């Protein structure tokens, strides 16, 4: 069955029924539709019928890891995802969640209103990305990226898998090459401006460097400017549209 697209529908995958109910009620008060699930398999079954605008996914569920769902299904369908975790000190979970392509990350306990604010920010970015009519294909150092289709092609012609977060970060660099971008600027463009893990942009940059085959000790494309931020040092050629 072809999945139906619903622009105001949010799926909540959370086995804590009380938290799921609170989130659902808060989102509905702000004009969203919601469906809640306590098991991964139930959400996956529903995904074959309808495509939500966004998914909130708990890190650990009774029948598996939320990260597995993010990698196996949501990323492939380009469905934005916000991960949730219940341990304040579990920094590796936050890092792994971002590395796996989560669009944002919330650590419990959090305010339901904060969840709504994060969701709106993620959805705005997704809508902006979907609606961009030009400047979709760029080339640098032999690499080619199609921002619309999220396709990154290496100099030797093979495709490298990238997440929505990777593409947003790369787009930020491509739009302002040869300029120093602060962590705050990059965090805002990637949607991490309110993230509890304020070094998440370093994780994203490190991941993108790896996918670009960079030597972490001597990167040539994305350079660290100590005390300031990062700079995209490669020359950028836009193949569709023109940049002023």
Q: What does this entry look like structurally?
A:
With about 240 residues, the protein is an alpha/beta fold. The protein has two domains: about 5-130, 3-Layer(aba) Sandwich (Rossmann fold); about 135-240, Winged helix-like DNA-binding domain superfamily/Winged helix DNA-binding domain (Arc Repressor Mutant, subunit A, Orthogonal Bundle). Helix content is about 35%, strand content about 25%. α1 crosses α5 and α6 (about 165-175) crosses α8. The longest helix is centred in the middle third of the chain and has 20 residues, at about 110-130. It is elongated and about 50 Å long.
Characteristic terms for this protein:
single chain; 244 residues; alpha/beta; Rossmann fold; Arc Repressor Mutant, subunit A; 2 domains; five-stranded parallel β-sheet; five-stranded antiparallel β-sheet
Counting DSSP E segments of at least 2 residues, the number of strands comes to 17
**What count of helical segments does DSSP give?**
8
- Please state roughly what percent of the residues sit in beta strands, choosing from under 5%, 5-15%, 15-25%, 25-35%, 35-45% or over 45%: 15-25%
Summarize the biggest pleated sheet. 5 strands, parallel
Give the CATH superfamily of the largest domain.
Response regulator
CATH class of the largest domain: Alpha Beta
Order of helices and strands: EEHEHEEEEHEHEHEEEEHEHHEEE
Spatial shape: elongated
* Structural class based on helices, strands and sheet pairing: alpha/beta
Average pLDDT, to the nearest integer? 82
Low-confidence stretches: 193-197
Helix content: 25-40%
CATH architecture of the largest domain: 3-Layer(aba) Sandwich
Predict the CATH topology of the largest domain. Rossmann fold
End-to-end C-alpha gap:
45 Å
Total number of domains: 2
Alpha carbon gyration radius: 18 Å
């Amino acid at each position: 069955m072809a999945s139906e697209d619903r622009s105001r529908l949010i799926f909540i995958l959370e086995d804590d029924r009380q938290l799921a109910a609170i989130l659902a009620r808060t989102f509905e008060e702000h004009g969203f539709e919601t469906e809640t699930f306590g098991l991964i398999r139930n959400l996956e079954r529903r995904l074959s019928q309808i495509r939500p605008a966004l998914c909130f996914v708990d890190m650990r569920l009774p029948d598996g890891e939320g990260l597995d769902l993010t990698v196996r299904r949501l990323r492939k369908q380009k469905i934005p995802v916000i991960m949730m975790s219940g341990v304040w000190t579990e920094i590796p979970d936050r890092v792994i969640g971002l590395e796996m392509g989560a669009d944002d990350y919330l650590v419990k306990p959090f305010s339901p209103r904060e969840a709504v604010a994060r969701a709106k920010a993620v959805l705005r970015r997704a809508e902006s990305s979907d609606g961009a009519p030009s400047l979709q294909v760029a080339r640098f150092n032999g690499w080619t990226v199609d921002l619309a289709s999220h396709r990154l092609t290496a100099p030797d012609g093979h495709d490298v898998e990238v997440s929505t977060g990777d593409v947003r970060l790369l787009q930020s660099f491509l739009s302002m090459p040869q300029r120093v971008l602060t962590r705050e600027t990059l965090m805002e463009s990637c949607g991490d401006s309110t993230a509890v893990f304020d070094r998440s942009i370093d994780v994203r940059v490190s991941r993108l460097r790896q996918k670009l085959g960079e030597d972490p000790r001597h990167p040539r494309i994305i350079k660290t400017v100590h005390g300031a931020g990062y700079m995209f040092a490669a020359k950028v050629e836009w193949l569709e549209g023109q940049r002023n």
